[in-house]
C-alpha cells in the first residue's frame, strides 16, 4: 500500500543531534532538524502530498500529524491514528482494519527498512529558486534508505519535496499546502458512524 509507505517514510526518522564533521554538515543537520520539528513537533502540522515511485506507482492525498497521532485521506485509502488505535479504511473493499497504533504489521515496507538520522552524512546547497537542498548520504554498511534529498523553503524552512532512494528505486514526494500549528486532537478521532456498514477486521495484538 503506497499510503503506508509514505506515512512510514515521513515518520520513521529518529532525531539524535550530534556534532558533524564540517561547518556545512552541521548547518545542514540543524536545518534538517528545524524542518522536522515543524512537521512532527507537538504543535502538529498538515500537508498535501503527491507521491511518484519510479514513474509507475502514483498517489496523492492530505496528511495530518501531531505527536504520535496521524491521519491521511486519499481517493481509495484513509487512516485515523489516535495514538492508541489505528484505523485503516479501504474504500473500494469497504473494510476497516484496526491495528495497534505502533504495529509494524500495517504494511510490509515497515518491517523491511529502518532509518536513523545519525547513519547519514549531511550537506546543504543553495538550489537558487528551488530552495535549500539538504542531502543525506548513507554511511558505509547502512541498509534501507541510501540517499535522501529534501528541498526546503528559503524563508519559512517549510518542506517542499523529498527524493528518496531505497534499494534500486526512487520515490519522489512533492509537498504543498503545508501548515504547522493549531492542529486539533479531534482531527484524529475515527468517524465510526461514517463507516458503520464497512466490514471491521481487528488485527490488534498480532
Q: Total strand count, please?
A: 12
| C-alpha Rg (nearest Å) | 17 Å
The helix tally amounts to 2
Distance between the termini: 19 Å
- Anisotropy-based shape: globular
Mean pLDDT: 84
Largest sheet: 12 strands, mixed
Helix content: 10-25%
Strand percent estimate: 35-45%
Structural class: mainly beta
SSE order, one letter for each helix or strand: HHEEEEEEEEEEEE
Tell me the strand order in the biggest sheet. 7-8-9-10-11-1-2-3-4-5-6-12
Enumerate the spans where pLDDT stays under 50 for 5 or more consecutive residues. Answer: 11-19, 108-113
Detailed description of the structure:
The chain has 206 residues and is mainly beta. Helices cover 14% and strands 42% of the residues. It has helices at 2-11, 23-40, and strands at residues 45-53, 57-66, 69-73, 77-81, 85-90, 95-100, 120-126, 132-138, 145-152, 159-166, 169-180, 199-202. Strands 7-8-9-10-11-1-2-3-4-5-6-12 form a twelve-stranded mixed beta sheet, with helices on one face. Strand 8 and strand 9 (145-152) form a beta hairpin. It is globular and about 55 Å long. Residues 11-19 and 108-113 have low confidence and may be disordered.
Amino acid at each position: 500500500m503506497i499510503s503506508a509507505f509514505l506515512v512510514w517514510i515521513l515518520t520513521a526518522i529518529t532525531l539524535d543531534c550530534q556534532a558533524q564533521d564540517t561547518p556545512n554538515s552541521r548547518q545542514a543537520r540543524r536545518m534538517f532538524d528545524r524542518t522536522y520539528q515543524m512537521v512532527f513537533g507537538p504543535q502538529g502540522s498538515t500537508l498535501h502530498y503527491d507521491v511518484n515511485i519510479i514513474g509507475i506507482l502514483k498517489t496523492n492525498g492530505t496528511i495530518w500529524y501531531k505527536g504520535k497521532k496521524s491521519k491521511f485521506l486519499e481517493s481509495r485509502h484513509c487512516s485515523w491514528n489516535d495514538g492508541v488505535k489505528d484505523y485503516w479504511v479501504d474504500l473500494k473493499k469497504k473494510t476497516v482494519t484496526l491495528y495497534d497504533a505502533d504495529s509494524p504489521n500495517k504494511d510490509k515496507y515497515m518491517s523491511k527498512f529502518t532509518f536513523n538520522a545519525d547513519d547519514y552524512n549531511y550537506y546543504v546547497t543553495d538550489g537558487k529558486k528551488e530552495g535549500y537542498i539538504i542531502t543525506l548520504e548513507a554511511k558505509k554498511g547502512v541498509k534501507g534508505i541510501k540517499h535522501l534529498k529534501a528541498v526546503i523553503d528559503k524563508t519559512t524552512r517549510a518542506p517542499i519535496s523529498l527524493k528518496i532512494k531505497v534499494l534500486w528505486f526512487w520515490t519522489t514526494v512533492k509537498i504543498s499546502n503545508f501548515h504547522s500549528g493549531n492542529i486539533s486532537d479531534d482531527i484524529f478521532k475515527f468517524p465510526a458512524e461514517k463507516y458503520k456498514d464497512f466490514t471491521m477486521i481487528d488485527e490488534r495484538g498480532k
